[in-house]
C-alpha cells in the first residue's frame, strides 16, 4: 500500500499519519500540490491523502494549479480509490461531491471537544470519548449527498464526513507537537486577530492532547484501511 500525499505548504505535513504508515511498512510520498506536473498516476491500492493549507476552495476560479489539483482528486473519487482529506483536503472533497464551501465570520482555532455522531462511532467500532481535538480553520461545508457525518462542534455543524472510500476531517487528528508549533510559528501575526466565537482553548502544542488525539485517530485509520493487528506505534 502506497500513500500519495498532496502537500500545500511544507510546514503542514501528514504528522501522525506518516508515523502510522511507516510503522506498517508502507510508503508515503509527499507531492507539492502546486506542481500538478509532478502528480503521479495512481495505481493498485494507492491511497490518496490531501492535506491542509492556507488556501481556500473559494480561490478556485482564479487559481489554475488548484483547479488541476481538484481535477486530480476528482479522478481518484470517480475511481473509488481510498482517499483521506484533512482540513483544506476535506473542503476540496466536499466541493467535488457537490456541496457548498463557505466561510465562518471568525476562525475556529485551538483545542475543543467534538460531538461525535453515533453512527460514526458504531461504523468504526470506537467508543464515545470526550477529548479535545485540534482545530485550525475558517471555511466550512455542508454534508455532501450520500456521505455520513463524523462529528460537529458549536459553530461547525459538519466536522468531517465519510463514505466507503472517503474519510474527510475538518479538524486535525494528525497534528504532532511539532506540527502545531509550526502552524503557530508561521501564522503568529494572525492568531491575535482571530477572535474565537466559542469557548475553546487557544492553539498550543500540548503533548497530552496530541497523544489523546492520535489514540483516537489510530483505530479510525485501521478500520478505514482494513489494516488490523497488534499496535505498532507506542
Automatic annotation (TrEMBL):
Q: Which Pfam families match?
A: GATase
Query: Would you say which domain of life the source belongs to?
Result: Bacteria
Matching Gene3D superfamilies? 3.40.50.880
> How is this protein annotated for GO cellular component?
cytosol
Q: Which InterPro entries match?
A: ChyE-like, Class_I_gatase-like, GATASE
Q: Which residues form the Glutamine amidotransferase domain?
A: 25-177
Q: Entry's PANTHER family? A: GLUTAMINE AMIDOTRANSFERASE YLR126C-RELATED (PTHR42695)
Kindly provide the name given to this protein in its UniProt entry. Glutamine amidotransferase domain-containing protein
What is the protein's species of origin? Jeotgalibacillus malaysiensis
Amino acid at each position: 500500500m502506497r500513500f500519495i500525499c498532496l502537500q500545500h505548504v511544507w510546514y503542514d505535513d501528514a504528522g501522525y499519519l506518516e508515523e502510522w504508515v511507516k510503522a506498517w511498512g508502507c510508503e508515503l510520498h509527499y507531492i507539492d500540490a502546486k506542481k500538478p506536473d509532478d502528480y503521479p498516476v495512481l495505481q493498485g491500492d494507492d491511497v490518496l491523502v490531501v492535506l491542509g493549507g492556507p488556501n481556500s476552495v473559494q480561490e478556485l476560479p482564479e487559481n489554475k494549479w488548484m483547479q488541476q489539483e481538484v481535477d486530480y482528486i476528482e479522478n481518484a473519487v470517480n475511481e473509488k480509490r481510498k482517499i483521506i482529506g484533512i482540513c483544506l483536503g476535506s473542503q476540496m472533497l466536499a466541493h467535488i461531491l457537490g456541496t457548498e464551501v463557505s466561510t465562518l465570520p471568525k476562525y475556529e482555532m485551538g483545542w475543543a471537544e467534538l460531538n461525535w455522531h453515533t453512527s460514526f462511532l458504531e461504523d468504526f467500532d470506537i467508543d464515545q470519548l470526550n477529548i479535545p481535538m485540534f482545530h485550525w480553520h475558517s471555511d466550512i461545508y455542508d454534508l455532501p449527498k450520500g456521505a455520513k457525518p463524523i462529528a460537529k462542534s458549536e459553530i461547525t455543524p459538519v466536522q468531517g464526513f465519510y463514505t466507503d472510500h472517503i474519510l474527510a476531517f475538518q479538524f486535525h487528528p494528525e497534528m504532532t507537537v511539532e506540527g502545531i508549533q509550526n502552524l503557530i510559528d508561521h501564522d503568529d501575526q494572525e492568531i491575535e486577530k482571530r477572535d474565537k466565537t466559542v469557548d475553546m482553548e487557544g492553539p498550543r502544542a500540548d503533548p497530552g492532547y496530541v497523544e489523546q488525539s492520535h489514540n483516537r485517530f489510530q483505530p479510525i485509520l485501521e478500520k478505514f484501511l482494513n489494516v488490523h493487528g497488534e499496535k505498532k506505534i507506542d
